[in-house]
Write a structure and sequence with these properties.
The protein has 267 residues and is an alpha/beta fold. The protein is built from ten helices and eight strands. The chain has a single domain, classed as Alpha/Beta hydrolase fold, catalytic domain (Rossmann fold, 3-Layer(aba) Sandwich). Strands 1-2-4-3-5-6-7-8 form an eight-stranded mixed β-sheet, sandwiched between helices. Helix 3 links the parallel strand 5 and strand 6.
């Protein structure tokens, strides 16, 4: 269970499997294990690096340096520490924002970038959504806020067909301690993300992927990303914001096929 120090903060990461390296970057929760079944799916044929963002999981719990740019620097150091050379980065939501900054500022460390359920910059809808999420945390606490968040992180169809899996996510996501300073800094971080002007400079092969029923970061955000990044591929799959949990095999197979096309040995 290795750690690397990045600008004075300890960043935890785990490595699974063998083969072409794939870096999985989690969403707003920041905890690598939140990728769930994707870790084993990718580890079957790849060397998978799964970090916890600063302030989360087994990384140092601090609100220091809570910006997308700092997270990209943290992940660049994880790549160096894991001694795995250029990686295929796969980022969901907040992790997709970090992947954008890696492709902009640390392109030499990337073979490809897959950006899932993410944004180039916030709009009025996105800012209102996260203001309400902040208010829910303040007024009602972690458990009630997590119950409410499930309504737009999962698609309505998945919630109808797999209610026990949604409840299992709610139970797990609300089980840990609530650290308001860190939680609110992370909300400010993603709402403040703005890579719009820099996206055309990306030269890394990029796949932009989104769930058709994503209510958290609706499809127009991903369409904008694909339009701004030269040569980006754009795919819409059936699912919600947590498409990696709703459609694990489909998501994995779609991303793995893209990775294979940008790996010299085809793996």
């Amino acid at each position: 269970m290795p750690n690397v120090i990045s600008d004075g903060v300890s960043i935890h990461y785990e490595v699974r499997g063998q083969g072409t390296p794939v870096l999985l970057l989690a969403g707003l929760a920041g905890i690598g294990a939140s990728w769930g079944p994707q870790i084993d799916l990718f580890a079957a044929h790849h060397r998978v690096i799964v970090p916890d963002h600063r302030g989360t999981g087994a990384s140092e719990h601090t609100a220091q340096g809570m910006t997308i740019a700092q997270h990209a620097r943290d992940m660049a150091r994880v790549i160096d520490a894991a001694a795995c050379g250029p990686v295929h980065v796969v980022g969901s939501s907040t992790g997709g924002a970090i992947a954008q900054r890696l492709a902009i500022k640390h392109r030499e460390l990337l073979r490809s970038a897959t950006i899932i359920s993410s944004i180039a910059r916030a709009d009025a809808y996105y800012r209102r959504q996260f203001e309400m999420r902040r208010r829910m945390l303040t007024d009602s606490g972690l458990r009630a806020s997590t119950e409410a968040n499930a309504l737009f992180l999962f698609s309505a169809r998945f919630m109808r067909e797999q209610p026990e899996r949604v409840q299992a996510w709610v139970d797990a996501a609300s089980a840990g301690p609530f650290e308001p300073e860190i939680a609110f800094a992370r909300i400010d971080m993603i709402v403040g993300h703005d890579a719009w002007d820099d996206l055309p400079s990306i030269t890394t092969p990029t796949l932009v992927l989104v769930g058709e029923r994503d209510a958290c970061a609706p499809t127009h955000f991903s369409a904008e990303l694909a339009q701004r990044i030269p040569g980006a591929e754009f795919i819409v799959l059936d699912g919600g914001h947590f498409i990696f949990l709703e459609q694990p095999e489909l998501l994995h197979d779609t991303v793995a096929a893209f990775i294979a096309r940008h790996t010299s040995d085809g793996r």
